[in-house]
Design brief:
coiled coil, mainly alpha
């Protein structure tokens, strides 16, 4: 069963629990991707600055110290976000939770599906360019989750834009997304959740032996027998 099928069975979220859980799971995934991509971007900047920095340059030393402090904060932030995601995942219906885990276990690139690819490209992410960053992202021993499409903290997207988003601009993006997901039109929430809950591959049914066609005489005998009951 995929998410859209479950959504219909649940009465379009009328039960009050699939809609809210879907919203929380969707936003949890986005927050984790933001954290992981901010870490990746900062580590690249730290590495680049360390290669050229003058150990006596106080300004560069202060910048490195600031970035290292932010990396420490992101470590704690990732842990807290994982706890929240675990709570919301445990609230999923049993059939969806099993499918959710099964798809991710079988295919680490589960997120490269049509719904999420299109959304990434539409938002100006790497799926709209030839860089292939989304497909290249890999989980690590310390970051098994939060691997996926571009967020506001994608380093490649920042490079293409030519600037980092301000705190106010990122907050505006979050508010607009929340407003869309919680709005009266559920289409975007359904599309995003369908992307997060891609249906697991279904094995083709085993072929059954074909029944031999009945002769007309045997068919009429069966009908007559049924009428006599």
């Amino acid at each position: 069963m995929d998410f859209q099928a479950y959504y219909k069975l649940d009465g379009g979220g009328g039960g009050g629990y699939s809609m809210n859980t879907s919203f929380c799971t969707t936003t949890d995934d986005g927050h984790l991707r933001e954290t992981v991509q901010r870490e990746e971007s900062l580590k690249e900047r730290v590495h680049a600055l360390q290669k050229i920095t003058d150990s006596e340059d106080e300004k560069e030393k202060a910048q490195l110290s600031q970035w290292q402090q932010e990396l420490d904060d992101l470590q704690r932030q990732y842990w807290n976000q994982m706890q929240l995601l675990a709570i919301h995942e445990s609230s999923l219906p049993t059939d969806l939770r099993r499918m959710y885990g099964s798809v991710r276990k079988k295919n680490p690139k589960w997120y490269l599906n049509s719904e999420l690819n299109v959304d990434c490209a539409r938002r100006g992410g790497c799926c709209g360019r030839d860089c292939g960053c989304c497909a290249k992202r890999e989980p690590t021993a310390n970051r098994t989750r939060g691997i996926g499409h571009c967020s506001v903290n994608c380093g490649c997207c920042s490079h293409i834009r030519g600037f980092d988003l301000t705190v106010e601009e990122m907050e505006n993006v979050h508010q607009q997304l929340d407003k869309t997901l919680k709005g009266s039109n559920p289409n975007h929430l359904i599309a995003m959740t369908s992307g997060l809950f891609p249906a697991a591959p279904v094995s083709p049914p085993k072929s059954k032996p074909r029944r031999q066609p009945q002769s007309k005489s045997s068919m009429w005998k069966r009908v007559g027998h049924m009428l006599k009951r």
